[in-house]
Amino acid sequence: MPQTAERPVASPRQPRFVGELDTLIRARYPLVYLVSSEETRVEELLKGIARGHGKSLIGWSAVRGLHRLDETRGVALPSETEDPFAALQALRGLQEPALIVLKDLHAWLDDRRLVRALRELGQTLKSSYTTVLVLAPVLQLPVELEKEIAVLDVPLPTFAELADLLREIVGVLRRSGRIAVDLKREEGEQLIKAALGLTLQEAENAFAKAIAENDRLDASDIQRVMDEKRQLIRKSGLLEYYPVDQSLAAVGGLQNLKDWLHRRARAFTAEAHAFGLPEPRGLLLLGVQGCGKSLTAKAIASQWALPLLRLDMGRVFSGLVGSSEENLRRAIRVAESAAPAVLWLDEIDKALSGSASSNVSDGGTTARVLGTFLTWLQEKTAPVFVVATANRVEGLPPELLRKGRFDEIFFIDLPDAAEREEILRIHLTRRGRKPESFDLAALAARAEQFSGAELEQAVVEGLHAAFDVRTQLADGHLAQAISETVPLAVTLREEISRIRDWARDRTRSASRGTSR
Hints:
alpha/beta, Rossmann fold, Helicase, Ruva Protein, domain 3, 15 strands, 46% helix
């Protein structure tokens, strides 16, 4: 078999994945599994790799069988190869160095005969210059292939790829003369950043839709693309794109946590990177229910002007057996492609509480998902700031609490008197009332052991009472609402005491002067 030029083909503008795949091809890996739904984009990338190695690029699908994907004129390919087994048998006799792209072969990998044929094909190709690439939108590997095939996740388009796409669209629009283009350089960069996290096709559709709104391409389209991305991310069923309309000023108390966040407000900038600072990795927020953990997650994204993605761990575990790990990997890919971003995992203790007994209760699924998540937390290089919240510390696996997973673990306790005053002031102001018209110190003293959520509900209940008798809200309405509320700290006194005892020497207090 003729030898080919085996040289690296990746360039600085290409995704890092191209270099990783190039290395596998130069190392003569016979079988590689590429996880991506972007067939057209992957084909274009593979064309460049194939040219760099002097190889043919051949595709296969159940509709077209074996067919050429490039301009090379090699030997005639066998006909009637739409059946996957027939295609694998035909590839055993291929007489030219090539990259073979098998599209959606995962749909047949429950056929043990086909799995055997793929394994034997891989063994045959070990001494050749041909690599078989399984291209599928999900990772579905039978156990027989786990040690035989290398797996690569194809990342979503980079900033450079989206910039090339936008440049091409702008060129077409300007040549047509029918659409006005009014984008400054900074606005163009913001538009590209807004599209991060989309496939090339989704980004092209989002740009086209934004242009169709007013027959223009300008700064107003940045928000339109963001709105479109929010809808597309939501369709995944795993991640939800949250609007960031809450600032840290809307969070009462928690001054230690706020100070920590303020010091890192510019940590995602190029200036910080040049200074030698790594991007912050994340926070684990533990504490009493209703004390602002979720609100803080939203406020962090707003304060740092980053997109907020919420990962629904419950949906990660839904679906077929074996799909949970793939669901998590897919969610991570989307989050990394939208970086820098904040990834919010709410009540992570509920999702991972069964990891210790996972092998008995769910066949090891929870343990595998936890392992995938912990590995990513430890090794991630994309600037994704993870905010995980939890109420029950005993439900957290010990591995999650190890140093290096998160930058810091904060404990959010019930607010003290000064913090209760601040929280009441925030909620009264939000509802159009002047805080100075109320005796906040007396109300805060009366509301001892109230959480932030319970204080907000007391304000709402007071408003209902005032509205019912057609009068303005007064101290008496709020005092009555407070007196009629039994706080969770009383109902769950023993549990909260246990959480405080656990957190005393293991976490950092989110508030100043909090006694636990």
